Amino acid sequence: MKELPLVSVVCLCYNQSRWLDEAVMSVLNQTYKNVQLIIVDDASTDDSVTKIKRLKDAYPSIEIILSAKNRGNCAAFNEALKKVTGDFVIDFAADDVMMPTRIERQIEFFKQLDSSYGVVFTNAEYIDATGRFIRNHYDYLFQRKLLSKVPQGDVYRDVLSTYFIASPTMMVRKEVFDKIGGYDEALAYEDFDFWVRSSRIFKYRFLDESLTKVRRTGLSMSSGWYKVGDRQLHSTYLVCCKAIHLNRDEDDVSALLKRVRYEMRQSVFSENHDEAHLFYELLRAINRINRKDKFLMLADRLKLPLKRFRSFYYSIRFKRGE
Questions:
Q1: Do residues 183 and 78 touch, judged by C-beta distance below 8 A?
Q2: Any residues with CB less than 8 A from the CB of 149 and at least 6 apart, and which?
Q3: Which of 54, 113, 156, 186 pairs as cysteine with 117 (C-beta 3.0–4.6 A)?
Q4: Is the CB of residue 91 less than 8 Å from the CB of residue 189?
Q5: What is the pLDDT of residues 265-309, one digit of tens each?
Q6: 223, pLDDT greater than 60
Q7: What are φ and ψ of residue 13, in 5° steps?
C-alpha cells in the first residue's frame, strides 16, 4: 500500500491564546493522520507560549518555534518553512478551525490533478470570537455581486484584479514555495503577493466545500485595512509593482490596471495620500492615465475630507453578516 503524502501544517500564533487549543486540536483530530504540525509563536505577549509548551508536553510530535522578537507573519512562516518536510503545506492561523475531514478531502482532490496544479482552495465559514457563524465566504461574494463564478486553472489575471480566495482554506504543494522562495518578508501581509507570484507558475483548483472556519475577531490585520498609515496598503502597491514585470500581454495589463485604479480610489477616499500618489505614478509608468484618474488625484491634492463618506458608504453597502 502506497504511503499517504505528508501534509505540513504551519500554525502561526500571535496573542491568540484564547483560541489556540481549539485550533490545534482541530488539526490533531483530522481524519487524515499523516500530518506534521509546526506551531510558531511570534513573540506573543499573552500566555500563548505557556499553552504551546503545554500542548507540546501532551503531544510530543508537535514541533514548536518560539520567537524572541515579533517579526510578522511572513518571516514567522518562512522560519517554519525551513522545518517543513511534507509534500503539501497549509498556512494555518491559531484562531481558525479545521473541519475534521479538511486535509483528507483536499488530498483526495489533489490526487485527481496533475502536477501543474499547485493550490487547492475551498469555501469557508466566517465565525466571530465566540464561534458564532457570521457568513459563508462565497455566498457573501455572490449575493453582493462581487463575484459571478469562482475562477480556476490559470488564475493570474483573476487574483491580480479581484479578491476571491479565502486564503486560510488553501493547501499548497511544497514545490510552490520552493519555486517562489517563500513569502516576501518585506511585505506586511502575504496572500496577495503569494497569489500573484505563484499563479504565474502554477494553476489553482477550487473544491466547493466549506472545510475551514475562519475567525473574525477585530484583532486581525484585515480589520485595519485602509486605515491611514496602515502598512498593508503600501504592500499592495509593492505587489502591483512586481506584477508589471510578471505581465505577459495586454490582458494581463488590463487586470493590473483594474487593481491599481481600485487601490488608488480606496487610497483617495481613505485619505491615504502617499499611497494615492504612488498608485497614480504607477498608472503613469504603465502609460494608462485617463480623465477619471486625473480627477481623483485632484481630489487627493485638495485633501478633501472623504474618509467619513467612505466609511458611511461601506457601512451601508456591506453590513456585517449579510
A1: yes
A2: none
A3: 113
A4: no
A5: 999 999 999 999 999 999 999 988 999 999 999 989 998 887 766
A6: no
A7: -125, 130
DSSP codes of every residue in 64-82: EEE-SS---HHHHHHHHHT
- 285-301 residues labelled b (16+ CB within 10 A) or e (exposed): eeeeeeeebeebbeebe
Amino acid at 288: R
What pLDDT is stored for residue 322 in this prediction? 40
With contact defined as beta carbons under 8 Å apart, do 106 and 193 qualify?
no
Return d(Cα 89, Cα 12) in angstroms, integer: 13
Q: Output the pLDDT for position 219.
A: 58
Q: What angle do CA 225, 96, 135 make, to 5 degrees?
A: 70
What does the block give as the cell for 282? 504607477
Distance, CA of 174 to CA of 211 (rounded, Å): 20
Beta strands 117-127 and 133-136, pairing class = antiparallel
pLDDT at 256 over 70: yes
Q: Which three cell numbers stand for residue 220?
A: 486581525
pLDDT, one tens digit per residue, over 118-127 is 999 999 999 9
User: What amino acid occupies position 158?
Assistant: D
Helix axes 273-286, 250-269, angle to 10 degrees: 160
Per-residue pLDDT band for 103 (boundaries 50, 70, 90) equals: very high
